[in-house]
């Protein structure tokens, strides 16, 4: 069972990105992937895999002598939980407050504004 709100700490994101891209991956494959970026040792990878398995964020299947690791939470579910967490912490839970802040601080490009219009129009049609 994954953690209650499906949020990840920064180090967990490194592993989950690799698994979302190409699961299943073995311990050896993950060590190879994570050696350069973020520069983890084999023991760090092992510790992270154990902790994340205990937390229910990932799971594994034993195939021969190797553990094959899989994400146990969907990327979209984590993105939603992380977005909700950010909104709650920084914007009093308000998506409109976040967007108005970005607009006031001129943080949106014309392309992003157009994309947001399209998203809102699609949401309006779905209601």
In short:
This is Putative transcriptional regulator. This protein is mainly α and 127 residues long. Helices cover 63% and strands 11% of the residues.
Q: How is this structure best described in words?
A:
With 127 residues, the chain is mostly helical. It has two domains: 1-92, Winged helix-like DNA-binding domain superfamily/Winged helix DNA-binding domain (Arc Repressor Mutant, subunit A), CATH 1.10.10; 94-126, no CATH class. Helices cover 63% and strands 11% of the residues. A three-stranded antiparallel sheet has the order 1-3-2. The longest helix is centred in the C-terminal third of the chain and has 17 residues, at 110-126. The chain starts with 9 loop residues before the first helix and ends with a helix.
Query: In what range is the share of β-strand residues?
Result: 5-15%
Distance between the terminal alpha carbons, to the nearest Å?
Answer: 32 Å
Q: Spans with pLDDT under 50 lasting ≥5 residues?
A: none
H/I helix tally: 6
The dominant shape is elongated
What's the order of the H and E elements? Answer: HEHHEEHHH
**Share of helical residues:** 55-70%
Spatial ordering of strands, largest sheet: 1-3-2
CATH architecture of the largest domain: Orthogonal Bundle
Note the main sheet: 3 strands, antiparallel
- The total strand number stands at 3
Q: Regarding CATH, which class of the largest domain?
A: Mainly Alpha
What is the mean pLDDT?
91
Structural class: mainly alpha
- When the domains are counted, the total is 2
Q: What is the name of the CATH superfamily of the largest domain?
A: Winged helix-like DNA-binding domain superfamily/Winged helix DNA-binding domain
